[in-house]
Fold this protein.
Amino acid sequence: MVGITSYGAYIPRYRLKRKTIFLAMGWFNSATAGVARGEKAVANYDEDSVTMAVAAAQDCLKGCVRDEIGGLFLSSTTAPYLERQNAAICAAALALRPDIRTADFGASLKSGTTALITACDAVKAGDIKNFLVCAADSRQGKPGSNMEHTFGDGAAAFIVGKDNVIAELKGSYSITSDIIDYRRTQEEKFIRGWEERWIRDEGYMKIIPRAVNGLLEKYGLKIDDFAKVVISCPMGGALKGICKKVGIAPTQLQDNLMNSVGDTGSALPLMMLVAALEEAKPGDKILVVGYGNGSDVLFFEVTDQIEKAKDRIGIKGHLEQKKELDNYAKYLVYRDLIPVEKGIRGEETSPIRLSLMYREGKTLTALMGSRCKVCGTPQYPKQRVCINPDCGAIDQMDDYYFYDRIGRIKSFTADRLAFSIDPPAMYGLIDFDEGGRLYLDITDCDPDSLKVGMPVRMSLRRRYGDKGRGIYAYFWKAVPVLEKNV
Amino acid sequence: MASGIKNKVAIIGMGCTQFGELWDKSSEDLIVEAYKEAAEDAGIETKDIDAAWFGSCFEEINVGRGGIPLARALKLPNIPVTRVENFCTTGTEALRGACYAVASGACEIALALGCEKLKDTGFGGLPDLGTGEESKFYYPNLTAPGMFAQIANAYFAKYGLSREEGKRVLARISWKSHQNGAMNPRAHLHTTPSIDDMVNAPIIADPLGLFDCCGVSDGAAAAIVVPADKAKDFRPDPIYVKALQISLTPATGIGHQSWDGIHLESTRVAGLKAYEEAGIKNPREEINLMELHDCFSISELITYESLQISPMGKARDDVESGFYDLDGKIPCQSDGGLKCFGHPIGASGLRMVYEVYKQLQGKAEPKERQIKGNPRLGLTHNHGGICGSLVCSVAIFGNEL
């Protein structure tokens, strides 16, 4: 049996009410009133598709042995690098083994479902026992556009394997079509689309029913056989039309997250699948439809292992952990859409040494320090000489990872002199419950909420974007967690 | 057992420029001004100098690397000139080099000069520090006020002060320094804001506001050092070096939970060693004045405790009772301190010595700044680097052998 053995998701903390966008830009395009409902998730200034994918994978890997992962696919149309494998960055951050197969999937909005099918095929072929599949997107619509309203940011992750399967992949069906509904070239930041009525009628409403019916026919199934149908379709009108055409009842239809998160591109069908699994019962059949230059349809059957996987933060947990971003201008700055006066501290960027980044890869990307074999003190970064003043042993260290440890704020400040895209810069000394101390940036919280003793967890973030030299540097920051979640 | 530096060398001349935003002065101007005053004060000429130590911290900024800036400005005639840099202890390090060289007998007249030209950097506050290649990746964008603001928050939490209470204690420290600085013509800042003005000032790094932070200044200061037994050949009132200590915490505070995030271990250790070197048994009773590294109000507060002048957690009582005021038991920052005299990094340690030197000679100017009761022993203190890995210097000077 091959299928999903674990799932996880990530939705960034900030939610922007579409009304806030409309109040700022509706004067320019009053037609956006039609989509100015609900809210969308917005990645923080220090997040991108790689960091969100890692966050979803952290959720997914809870309780799993990382050394058992034999492959990683990352699906995204907005991965930060066009050359330099983004999946390799994720694999490094997740401290996966080096002898694994990795690949980036992208360009199409259905790349998430394609990656999931491909991973299942790889596991079926037998070489790789457990495959991690991540999908994340943070697509940008032009200010004043419908897409600016509808697009949202988020990520999902699955482990595909043979043992302890919670949802077996029973079959799939794909079609490819070079329909040029949405597109973006290498040179562009914003997505372009053709007339939405055409996309609705010729795209979603024709391609998806064809694909779904193809799968039903292939496996001799009826649509009524499915407890849930996940359709990656952000357009309400099109979704209604599809349901009518295919005969999907409202109770079967999985919420498309448009009111709460937005269209998360290649991650959308996978995030919806996570939400479906959160509510699923053994024996449920779930149909998943990915859309983009064609369509992938996947057919899952939930097993009795499902209950074991329900301690994830998932979609449900992340939907609850939110903070309204009530300022449109702030959103534009977070997404680097308007220039701001950064001052000399923001402008001066000394060159990043790539040879150093590579040499210290695990230190920087996987938050690896060391633990003294003699006195047991965890320390970061890794040391040759033990930092414990009462020990001082030389070359007696084991590797020790901090990425999944809980720490507490020992001291902190909210610094208005230090440069930050979202001032004040918050940072502090973090003492880990199991030992070790780090100076860390603190993110995803309000300065007034910081207290000595507050528990924090580790989150990978983009720390530097050096546009002049084409480098993004990632590092871990502390994010406050509720005491009950420690 | 090392015999230490006590009574082996003496300072026979000192100079200190006006500190401030000296837009119209170059580092050459500052070096020459500080040196001229020191040489005239000592009654020596350039050709008499056997060796020189030059302190500057941010060498990239118009001052330059190595000993060349000093040698070139003064036309030092092919003598050894060494540049030293050790964060905010740089000026004291320059003096330490000169003192050790004279004490060893390797030279007889040595010059220590520190200079910094911060106001050509374009930064408000200090330029961002590069502290080793990797740290850029894993330290936050630490600023100096941000590092000390953390100490303030940890101190308030440990000793149960509300943010408001804590800020008032800190403001009282800065208030005292403003009162002193206002009387000093060479100081950078001459304003006398009220405690309310300070508490309500814009926040720089919470909880520290504008008046919790020292001046960022240009300036230079210089000292001329000779063997103690030759000092009276130059002047009747030389000032003797009683102790010179440096201590550096090896990043323990950043990486090990043994540090309480408040008290400065390198200051405690340097203080203890300096008291021992100087033969001081009870610093609170024996020391007559102090120039502490008040880069921020909180750093002065915790230094009172780390130097064991005030009991741990009790410095507030001494601050509020006026113990450290100009007319208190141990006047601190009688010249205005870093707070108001200003803080050109490489010069600051020597500027503090300049103040102690003048006070111990009874020559502080103008006269209303002179500490009453014939002070005999003065202490200077610097710390710099990263909180949790601070380098600290403590030096003690006396007017008697």
